[in-house]
Amino acid sequence: MLTELFLIFIILFIGSFIQGVSGFGFGIIAMSFLPFIFTIKESTLLVVSLALITALSIVAQMYKHIQWKKIRILLVAALTGRLCGFFVLDRFGEMDFLKNLLGIFLIGVVIYLFTSKAPKDTKVTNETWLPVVLGFFGGLVGGVFAVGGPFFVFFMMLIFSKDKYAYSANLQATFVLTSLFTIGSHALNGDFTGNFLVYFFVGVVTVIIGSRIGIYCFTFVSQEDVKKIAAVFVAVAAVNLILFA
C-alpha cells in the first residue's frame, strides 16, 4: 500500500503543480494516470472529491461575482448530464473498456489544447441550445471521467470574456454543484470504501503542497511550455490507456 500511496502522491503532485503554474486542468492530469492504479470509478470519485475542495476554496473568495441567471440553464443541463454519468459509472465503472474510451477522449483534449483559441463573444451564448449542449456533455463526461471541464470553460469564456473574476467564480461554482451532485449520489449508492478516506487525505495534502509550489513558480516558468509538456504526458498516457488498459 505504501508504494500505491507514493504513486498517488506523485500523480496528484504533478497535476496540482501544473494547475498552480498554468491553470491547466488538475483533473485531466490526474485522470491520465490514476486509472493505471484504480478502476475508472475509483479514479473519478477521488478526483471529483479533490476538485471539489479546490473549487470551494476559490468560490469562498469570489462568490460575489457569481451570476446565477447567466449559468442556470448550463447548470440544469450539467446536473442532468451528471445523473446520466452516475448510471454509466455505476454500471460500467469497474470495466476496462472505459479506460479505452477515456484514452480516446484525452487524445481529443490534447488536440484541443494545441489548436484552440479563445472564442469570440457572440449573441448566441445567451440562447438555450448552447448551454444545454455544453452543459449536458460537460456533466456527462465529468460524471464518468472527471474531465468535463473543457465544455464549461468554453461556455464561460463566451459569456464572461470581459470579466475574468466572473469567469472564474461562475466556472468554479459550476464545478462545486456538479461535484456535490456526483459525490452525493455515489455516497447514497455506497460507492465510497474505507480506503478512500486514506487516499483522499493523502490527496488533500498533496494538492495543497503541489498547487502552492506551482503558484510560487508561476513567475519563473513559461505557462505555455508547461501546458505543452503536460499535453505530451497526457497524450502518452492516453495511448497507453487505449492500447494496454
TrEMBL record:
Coiled coil: which residue ranges? none
InterPro entries found in the cross-reference section:
TM_pro_TauE-like (IPR002781), TSUP (IPR052017)
Q: How is this protein positioned relative to the membrane?
A: Multi-pass membrane protein
Q: Does the keyword Membrane apply?
A: yes
Which UniProt keywords are given for this protein, alphabetically ordered? Cell membrane, Membrane, Transmembrane, Transmembrane helix, Transport
Q: Give the principal location in a single coarse category.
A: membrane
List all membrane-crossing ranges.
6-38, 45-65, 97-114, 134-158, 165-184, 196-221, 228-244
Record's subcellular location: Cell membrane
What do the Gene Ontology cellular component annotations say?
A: plasma membrane
Keyword Nucleotide-binding assigned: no
Q: Name one Pfam family in it.
A: TauE
Q: Which family does it belong to?
A: Belongs to the 4-toluene sulfonate uptake permease (TSUP) (TC 2.A.102) family.
Can you say what this protein is called?
A: Probable membrane transporter protein
Q: Which organism is it from?
A: Salipaludibacillus neizhouensis
